[in-house]
Amino acid sequence: STSIMFTSLEIISPQAFGVNIQWRTYLSMARDMLILRSRNYPVTFNDETFFLGRWYGYLDVLGSLSGRRTSRALDFNTYWVENSNEPEGTIDCLLGCTMHCMRLLGDVAGLVKDCEPQRFDDEGKLRRNWVPLPHLEERACHLLDQLHESLQRPVQTCPHDGTSSDTPVDMASPDLEELCSTNTLYHWGGI
């Protein structure tokens, strides 16, 4: 948990402690600890693992989309804790999107990592005439379809907003309108 929190701190306030350690280093440490933990202990649902798993997942997926020097996002089953009481389509107030959207963004990040070796030469320069391999293009089209389909799904309010978790989002509420808009923006980011 410390590495996850240091990652967050370093992103919002670089060198807060006067030490030049990049957020990627803290995220890598958290990744290594989560991999070791997942090998020795089953992922179970409790408040701590729920929060830390989702926060790490958010940092891992978005971090893996932030440039070529980052690692591939971990498989969700390594750290992701599902709340069995949460209906599908619930917008997570911590993430700003549905779990389905976050999984799709993780898939987009994986596709980007698979394309990078062909898109860039050994010096890191973009190959101008690059065309994706057929299986990569097929994956991209499938992900695009999934993202568009996910955008059309009804969404539910986060249980933390005080309403019933099986209530569709009431767009009359400014807070819920913002939550729904953020979910839409994450989908468009994946598209």
Topology:
Blueprint: H1 2-12, H2 23-40, H3 47-64, E1 91-92, E2 97-98, H4 99-119, H5 134-152, H6 174-190
Description:
α1 runs antiparallel to α2, α2 (23-40) packs across α3 and α4 (99-119) runs parallel beside α6. The chain contains 6 helices and 2 strands; from the N terminus they run αααββααα. The chain has 191 residues and is mainly alpha-helical. A two-stranded antiparallel ribbon has the order 1-2.
Structural class by secondary-structure content:
mainly alpha
Provide the residue-averaged pLDDT.
79
* Helix content range: 40-55%
Element-by-element helix/strand order:
HHHEEHHH
Largest sheet: 2 strands, antiparallel
Distance between the termini: 31 Å
Number of strands: 2
Choose one word for the global shape: globular
> What gyration radius follows from the Cα positions, in whole Å?
18 Å
Beta-strand residue percentage: under 5%
